[in-house]
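> call design_seq(struct)
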């Protein structure tokens, strides 16, 4: 068998190694709709500010993340803060809670908290690249969590006039009663206008029930148009049902 020249072999080896991180590369999140069209939203007409929430409650919807959050009963929610006023909106003091039907209040999970929920010993075991003798260690879960946090999390502290801030928050719902989304809400408080008086807005209450109802209606319409088509969502064979959470 004729061996490749050293330079060619080195290039081929480097190419294989470069392909390893791609195993954990994130996809792009689905395009964000206009906040005013999201089913679960709360608009303060006087202030001209809308807060909306879009749960990503199935593995199919959340497959662009580097980690299987849904499979660990962690609920990713895309948050929208739309400012249609003429004044910047200050979110530096804002608090955003998931409030369950029984009144349980959950803050968004930090990367450290997600790491404690997701980390498994198998994630640091050596693996082999198929067809080669090369052994590598897969990217630790905490690194993937940090990358997801960097790429997808809601990090805005100011929303400019006539602009929208979007990003994801993650809530650990493992101890909540099923179904988690029914009668739950996202509660946002302590938003202020960046004006001379630092005017505080009334709290926003976003009913996630509206998302559940919208998904049910969409599934019913799809089933009516295609009776034989399988479903995968709120009332279909979904990760949420398999895990008994959302």
């Amino acid at each position: 068998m004729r061996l490749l020249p050293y330079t060619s072999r080195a290039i081929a080896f480097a190419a294989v190694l470069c392909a390893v991180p791609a195993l954990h590369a994130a996809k792009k999140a689905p395009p964000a709709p206009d906040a005013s069209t999201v089913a679960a939203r709360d608009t303060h007409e006087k202030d001209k500010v809308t807060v909306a929430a879009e749960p990503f409650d199935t593995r199919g919807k959340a497959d662009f993340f580097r980690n299987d959050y849904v499979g660990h009963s962690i609920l990713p929610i895309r948050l929208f803060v739309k400012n249609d006023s003429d004044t910047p909106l200050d979110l530096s003091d804002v608090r955003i809670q998931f409030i369950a039907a029984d009144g349980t209040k959950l803050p968004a999970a930090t990367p450290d908290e997600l790491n404690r929920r997701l980390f498994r010993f198998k994630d640091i075991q050596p693996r082999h690249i198929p067809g080669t003798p090369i052994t590598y260690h897969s990217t630790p879960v905490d690194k993937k969590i940090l990358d997801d946090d960097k790429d997808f999390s809601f990090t805005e502290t100011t929303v400019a006039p006539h602009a929208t801030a979007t990003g994801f928050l993650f809530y650990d719902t493992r101890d909540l009663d099923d179904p988690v989304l029914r009668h739950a809400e996202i509660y946002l408080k302590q938003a202020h206008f960046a004006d001379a008086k630092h005017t505080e807005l009334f709290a926003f209450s976003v009913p996630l029930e509206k998302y559940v109802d919208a998904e049910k209606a969409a599934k019913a319409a799809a089933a009516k148009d295609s009776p034989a088509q399988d479903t995968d969502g709120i009332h279909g064979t979904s990760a949420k049902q398999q895990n008994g959470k959302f």
